[in-house]
Amino acid sequence: MNALNLQKGASSHSAYDLRDPNGQIEETHTLAVLVENEPGVLARVIGLFSGRGYNIDSLTVAEVDHTGHRSRITLVTRGTPAVIAQVKTQLGRIVPVHEVHDLTVEGPAVERELGLFKVHGQGEKRVEALRIAEIFRANVVDSTLESFVFELVGTPSKLDAFADLMRPLGLGELARTGVAALSRGT
């Protein structure tokens, strides 16, 4: 998982070379998994990925049905079409899993992520950070004489772009929630 990773491109794959060693193109997929909210379920899902050497780029989990005790796991992963099909099949076989949806192929979906960005700076860098934050509609949630903490909600690429612009201005720390996603329409 690279949610806390500050270095863009620190993953083992380049954004420009999404091929596996056999020449197949890797795809990024957002999966929504409805599970029983019980101890060990998340560990079993993550174990499926780690045991087969698959990476999880983003992971969010929250209870979505308090009376039915069900949680929704939203995860973003990469792989060839065959790997993605295998992941979905294997997820469906885990006993406390009720549903597996591939939001990438089931139709249009809305994806959002929350990021907190601590930017250190004074003088012109401070003014420029505020100007960029306004363009991105980021909120200032903390301010000292030496730094700001900005809150930004948007697509992962929007958060990436904001981080790229803040790095030369003094980006010190970054925390990201991971993707939350829902299919659009009925």
From TrEMBL:
EC identifiers of the protein: 2.2.1.6
Region (Disordered): 1-22
GO cellular component, one term: cytosol
UniProt cross-references to CDD domains, sorted A to Z: ACT_AHAS
Glycoprotein listed as a keyword: no
One term of GO molecular function: acetolactate synthase regulator activity
Keyword line: Amino-acid biosynthesis, Branched-chain amino acid biosynthesis, Transferase
Transferase is among the record's keywords: yes
Catalysed transformations (reactions): 2 pyruvate + H(+) = (2S)-2-acetolactate + CO2
ACT domain span: 30-105
Polar residues composition-biased segments: 1-14
SUPFAM superfamilies: ACT-like (SSF55021)
Role, per record: Catalyzes the conversion of 2 pyruvate molecules into acetolactate in the first common step of the biosynthetic pathway of the branched-amino acids such as leucine, isoleucine, and valine.
Family note: Belongs to the acetolactate synthase small subunit family.
Protein name from the UniProt record: Acetolactate synthase small subunit
Lineage: Bacteria, Pseudomonadati, Pseudomonadota, Alphaproteobacteria, Rhodobacterales
